């Protein structure tokens, strides 16, 4: 009986996945390349620090477009214990300047030196970390808490354009819900 219930739920889950995939047309290679190029082009219009933050905050979308992580990487991650997963995620953030963000930012800001690009990525990661660190769970207005968190982080990172701070407020509001 239990095996039947498991098979039934697995079939239902697979049917739901297939239905979702059918609702979302597959992107062509040209579509994918165009979206990556658009993200990089947006970053190219910004000063280096803001471009680094723009690329960093779009990292999940860029990863998806570039088919990262691979199936093998997903399997390896899932086989890890929670502390091992946390350590891997911490390592990826701590060395973000050596990952895909570097390649994307170098494409957006080709005149910047490698050292400047790496420093800008490190600063962007720290700024994002600070935004989430300063978010307080209390009973005050939700948006006000988002604004306060980014304002505190901005005191440590005063070199971004207002548009970056606005996007950071929006990101904090989205992810802390």
Please outline what is shown here:
This protein has 177 residues and is mainly alpha-helical.
- The protein's oligomeric status is single chain
Mean pLDDT: 88
Total helical elements: 10
Helix share bin: over 70%
Shape: globular
Strand content: under 5%
Could you explain how this protein is built, in words?
The radius of gyration is 20 Å and the shape is globular. The chain has helices at residues 2-23, 29-44, 48-57, 59-65, 71-79, 82-94, 100-108, 114-133, 142-156, 162-175. Residues 1-13 and 15-24 have low confidence and may be disordered. The longest helix has 22 residues, at 2-23. It is built from ten helices and no strands. With 177 residues, the chain is mostly helical. α2 (29-44) crosses α7.
Which characteristics define this entry?
single chain; 177 residues; mainly alpha; disordered N terminus
Describe the protein's topology.
Blueprint: H1 2-23, H2 29-44, H3 48-57, H4 59-65, H5 71-79, H6 82-94, H7 100-108, H8 114-133, H9 142-156, H10 162-175
């Amino acid at each position: 009986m239990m095996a039947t219930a498991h098979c039934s739920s697995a079939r239902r889950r697979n049917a739901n996945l297939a239905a979702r995939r059918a609702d979302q047309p597959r992107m062509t290679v040209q579509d994918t390349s165009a979206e990556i190029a658009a993200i990089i082009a947006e970053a190219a219009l910004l000063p280096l620090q803001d471009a680094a933050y723009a690329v960093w905050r779009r990292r999940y979308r860029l990863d998806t477009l570039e088919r990262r992580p691979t199936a093998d990487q997903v399997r390896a991650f899932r086989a890890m214990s929670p502390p091992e997963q946390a350590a891997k995620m911490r390592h990826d953030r701590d060395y973000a300047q050596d990952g895909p963000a570097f390649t994307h930012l170098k494409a957006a800001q080709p005149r910047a030196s490698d050292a400047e690009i790496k420093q800008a990525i490190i600063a962007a990661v720290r700024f994002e970390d600070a935004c989430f660190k300063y978010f307080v769970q209390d009973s005050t207005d939700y948006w006000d808490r988002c604004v306060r968190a980014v304002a505190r982080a901005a005191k440590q990172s005063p070199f971004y354009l207002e548009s970056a701070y606005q996007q950071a407020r929006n990101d904090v509001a989205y992810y802390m819900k």
